Structure formats: structure tokens, C-alpha cells
Amino acid sequence: MTDIQLNMDGEPGWEPFDAPALVGASLRFVSGDRTGNRFRMRYFRNASGELVARVWFGPETEGPPGHAHGGSIAAVLDEVLGLAAWAAGYPIVVGNLNIHFRHLLPLQTVVQVDSEVVAAAGRKISVRGRIVLGDRIFAEADCLCITLPEEQRRQLG
Ligand SMILES: CCCCCCCCCCCC(=O)SCCNC(=O)CCNC(=O)[C@H](O)C(C)(C)COP(=O)(O)OP(=O)(O)OC[C@H]1O[C@@H](n2cnc3c(N)ncnc32)[C@H](O)[C@@H]1OP(=O)(O)O
């Protein structure tokens, strides 16, 4: 795993950020993958304070030969964009996630997930995100997050 972890170092102005800890220890499907064969990832906040993730799509995420399954891409966006809302102070679950798959995403490649909380209206929090490598956009997403009532949060937590 060493080489991959080295590749996942952040950029100037980025700070490592333990985003999954915001919701406890439940996120085992993506960031908490214990096998390391599905996903390996690290979270940061960039110089603007937005949540950014570096993600490695492992062999167990395969869909089209040699490339990531769309569901694995959706899983990553679900987690990162949901946590972007949590990191901005909104205790939410994801209610709706629309994804445009722009290019096939090659396996065993470290890509970047950018996020931006774009609006908050009542319980509805809108987050945008994308998965990129340099100029190449693999996927773009609009995510509608819904804040949880206190009682429901206590039941989950
Ligand atoms: C410690 C904790 C750990 C929590 C851990 C959280 C981890 C986050 C990171 C991982 C992300 C995930 O995987 S989350 C897992 C995937 N998501 C889910 O399983 C969510 C399942 N769905 C739900 O639980 C529910 O449908 C909710 C909570 C989203 C909404 O139900 P509700 O609470 O009854 O609220 P409801 O009245 O229906 O809706 C409130 C407002 O939002 C709007 N709204 C609701 N859903 C939608 C929708 N899909 N599209 C458009 N609008 C919607 C409604 O029109 C309404 O607007 P208005 O009338 O007010 O205008």
C-alpha cells in the first residue's frame, strides 16, 4: 500500500481531515474498506475549506474491463458529497444523487473528488461534486442532502 499512500499526499494548502469520524465508525463500504482491494482513500480540506478526497479504485470495484463500476463511482460520490455537507455543519443523509458518467475510470488509479456545498434551504442542502484526474473529468454529480431531525440522529448514532 505504500506507493499508493505516497501518491495520495495532498496539495499545498490542503489539510488532512478525518471526515468519516464526523459520523462515527459506520462508513465501512468506501473509506472504511478493511481489505484495501476496493477503495483506499484520504480526506483533506483544500485552501478554500472544501472537502476533497483522494481515492484509489481497487480491483474489486471493476465494472467494464479494467475500469470502475458505475455503482462504485456512485458509492464514492454518495460518501464524499454527504460528508461534505457534514463537514459544513449539516447532519444529513443523501436523499438524491444525480451522476453524469463522463469517461471510463481506470482501475488502480488515484483520482480526486472535489466537493462544494452550493445551497441550503430548510432541510435541503445541495452539494456538487466531481471526480477528476488533471483535466479529465470522470464523473460529475448533484447531490441533495436532507438534514436529519435530532431524534433520528440519536437513534442512528
Ligand atoms: C449519527 C448519524 C449518522 C448518519 C450517517 C450519514 C452518512 C452520510 C454519508 C453517507 C451518505 C449515505 O450513504 S446516506 C445513505 C443513502 N440515503 C438514504 O438511505 C436515505 C433514505 N431516505 C430517508 O431516510 C428519508 O427519505 C429522508 C431522511 C432523506 C427524508 O425523509 P423525511 O425526514 O421524512 O423528510 P421528508 O419530509 O420526506 O423531506 C424533507 C424535505 O426534503 C425533500 N426531499 C426529501 N427527499 C427528497 C428527494 N429524494 N428529492 C427531492 N426532495 C426530497 C422533501 O420534499 C421535503 O421538502 P420540503 O417539503 O421541506 O420543501
Automatic annotation (TrEMBL):
<dbReference type="InterPro" id="IPR006683">
    <property type="entry name" value="Thioestr_dom"/>
</dbReference>
<protein>
    <recommendedName>
        <fullName>Acyl-coenzyme A thioesterase THEM4</fullName>
        <ecNumber>3.1.2.2</ecNumber>
    </recommendedName>
</protein>
<dbReference type="GO" id="GO:0016020">
    <property type="term" value="C:membrane"/>
</dbReference>
<dbReference type="GO" id="GO:0016790">
    <property type="term" value="F:thiolester hydrolase activity"/>
</dbReference>
<dbReference type="GO" id="GO:0006631">
    <property type="term" value="P:fatty acid metabolic process"/>
</dbReference>
<dbReference type="InterPro" id="IPR029069">
    <property type="entry name" value="HotDog_dom_sf"/>
</dbReference>
<dbReference type="GO" id="GO:0005737">
    <property type="term" value="C:cytoplasm"/>
</dbReference>
<keyword id="KW-0809">Transit peptide</keyword>
<keyword id="KW-0966">Cell projection</keyword>
<keyword id="KW-0276">Fatty acid metabolism</keyword>
<comment type="similarity">
    <text>Belongs to the THEM4/THEM5 thioesterase family.</text>
</comment>
<dbReference type="Pfam" id="PF03061">
    <property type="entry name" value="4HBT"/>
</dbReference>
<keyword id="KW-0053">Apoptosis</keyword>
<dbReference type="InterPro" id="IPR052365">
    <property type="entry name" value="THEM4/THEM5_acyl-CoA_thioest"/>
</dbReference>
<keyword id="KW-0443">Lipid metabolism</keyword>
<keyword id="KW-0472">Membrane</keyword>
<keyword id="KW-0378">Hydrolase</keyword>
<feature type="domain" description="Thioesterase">
    <location>
        <begin position="66"/>
        <end position="135"/>
    </location>
</feature>
<keyword id="KW-0963">Cytoplasm</keyword>
<keyword id="KW-1003">Cell membrane</keyword>
